[in-house]
Task: inverse folding
């Protein structure tokens, strides 16, 4: 048994962050895939590991770590391999600022729309009794509300519109920031890029009218450069659903303005 | 290195950054701004994305060599890195993970609740011309709701619950220890900064919490926090509130 065990779903959003950080550091880990769409994260076996029922969670020796962004900082500090936090204190501040902005402001908007169009429909056809029981098992009350809304398609028009506004603004902000330096938060590849890739790799598929080679060339270059890294390729190869497969669009070369995408 | 801190009364995020700055003896010019009147939006750097879109809401701004930096916990981490003296985060990676996850809970759950309750009890004020300068649409919307006195009962109830939960967590954590992370740290400063003003507003959360009560007094008396509090211009700085982080939109 390896000293690190990671409980995760797809290489996507929160699960993908520690997966990719571990792989960039070259740390071998035991992978426990939890199927979010079968509510594996709320089953007794996993609640014994993380009583909050959130994913991901990482075991290192006998310690349990949660909160994907904080896990990434831990992974970077505790294991050898390339440093994923810059040495300069101001660069480190910028990495953390962007991770918080994405985690707390931008990602929930992507996520609300993602749950509306992907997660909700994917579980809606299950037996209603089974669904009800599954929701009742969710430890955090906020997550119970989120699941109920996703399953019944109850996100209001206003909140979806607000999420769309944030997605469009977030995309513009990323594009502008990537004009300042080669990577999102510093001149070296960092945890902010790993975090950002998990959020944004599907952009050209899900939001082609907002993010494409013509409108957001820097975002597309950034995503392709990250996807070209061996760790990213290996990480996304662990995906099992069509969601993770959206990454394939990044294998296509840059399209010049005027050419069909 | 030229460093300027634009800060408000020593409460909430301004207290976190001031106390850390003093603890780490980082030389900086201190410039008072009235966060409660939205004066941050009149700064030359107000439209920089890291200022305009700071998740923290109306917090202090640290200007280092022309770069405008926000978000008090991360400013505290920065000051901890560049300053002198004892580290304000644990030195081992697991301890630092604990400190960062602790602060994340404070940022994400406690701070929005405290700011919401604080603004209701001690409403901030900004005029229409100033509101128009606010770059973030959602921050401006929060200002408008608060200025109009629109506080939802759901959010008020949820906020009181979040304060109770934070205090319960602190009480539990302090079993057998003086400070949340073992030694005085950013986690103590940040937790105190958001909770000190909640004692009179959510008194039931603090009832029969002897360890928390002693810890609040200990943090208040610590040299760096005491120095920050000495900058207060109002009799009760913990009653000074401006628009804070957004309450989670969902899940």
Result:
């Amino acid at each position: 048994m390896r000293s690190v065990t990671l409980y995760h779903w797809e290489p996507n959003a929160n699960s993908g962050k520690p997966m990719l950080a571990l792989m960039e550091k070259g740390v071998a880990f035991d992978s426990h895939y939890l199927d979010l769409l079968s509510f594996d994260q709320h089953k007794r076996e996993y609640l014994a590991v993380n009583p909050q029922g959130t994913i991901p969670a990482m075991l290192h020796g006998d310690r349990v770590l949660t909160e994907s962004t904080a896990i990434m900082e831990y992974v970077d500090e505790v294991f050898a391999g390339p440093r994923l936090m810059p040495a300069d204190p101001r660069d480190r501040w910028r990495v953390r600022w962007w991770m918080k902005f994405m985690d707390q402001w931008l990602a929930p908007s992507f996520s609300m729309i993602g749950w509306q169009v992907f997660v909700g429909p994917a579980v809606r056809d299950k037996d209603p009794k089974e669904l009800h029981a599954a929701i009742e098992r969710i430890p955090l009350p906020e997550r119970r509300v989120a699941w109920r809304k996703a399953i019944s398609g109850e996100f209001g028009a206003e909140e979806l519109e607000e999420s769309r506004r944030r997605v469009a603004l977030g995309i513009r902000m990323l594009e502008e920031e990537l004009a300042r330096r080669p990577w999102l938060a510093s001149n070296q590849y960092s945890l902010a890029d790993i975090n950002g890739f998990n959020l944004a790799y599907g952009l050209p598929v899900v939001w082609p009218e907002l993010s494409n080679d013509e409108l957001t060339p820097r975002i597309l270059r950034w995503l392709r450069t990250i996807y070209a890294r061996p760790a990213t390729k290996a990480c996304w190869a662990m995906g099992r659903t069509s969601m993770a497969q959206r990454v394939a669009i990044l294998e296509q070369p840059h399209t010049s303005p005027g050419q069909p995408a | 290195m030229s460093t300027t801190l634009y800060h408000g009364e020593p409460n909430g995020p301004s207290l976190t950054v001031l106390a850390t700055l003093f603890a780490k003896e980082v030389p900086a010019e201190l410039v008072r701004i009235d966060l409660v009147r939205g004066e941050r939006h009149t700064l030359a750097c107000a439209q920089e994305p890291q200022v305009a879109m700071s998740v923290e809401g109306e917090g202090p701004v640290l200007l280092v060599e022309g770069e405008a930096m926000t978000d008090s916990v991360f400013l505290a981490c920065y000051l901890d890195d560049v300053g002198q003296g004892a580290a304000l985060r644990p030195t081992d990676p697991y301890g630092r993970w604990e400190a960062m996850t602790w602060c994340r809970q404070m940022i994400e759950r406690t701070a929005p609740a405290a700011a919401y309750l604080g603004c209701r009890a001690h409403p901030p004020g900004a005029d229409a011309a100033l509101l128009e300068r606010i770059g973030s649409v959602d921050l401006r919307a929060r200002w408008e709701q608060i200025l109009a006195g629109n506080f939802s009962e759901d959010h008020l109830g949820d906020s009181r619950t979040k304060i109770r939960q934070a205090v319960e967590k602190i009480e539990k954590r302090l079993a057998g220890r003086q400070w949340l992370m073992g030694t005085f740290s950013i986690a103590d400063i940040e937790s105190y900064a958001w909770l000190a003003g909640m004692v009179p507003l959510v008194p039931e959360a603090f009832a029969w919490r002897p360890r928390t009560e002693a810890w609040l007094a200990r943090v208040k008396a610590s040299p760096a926090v005491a120095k920050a509090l000495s900058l207060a211009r109002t009799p009760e700085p913990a009653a000074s509130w401006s628009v804070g982080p957004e309450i989670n939109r969902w899940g």
About this structure: Strands of chain A lie at 4-8, 30-33, 57-60, 63-66.
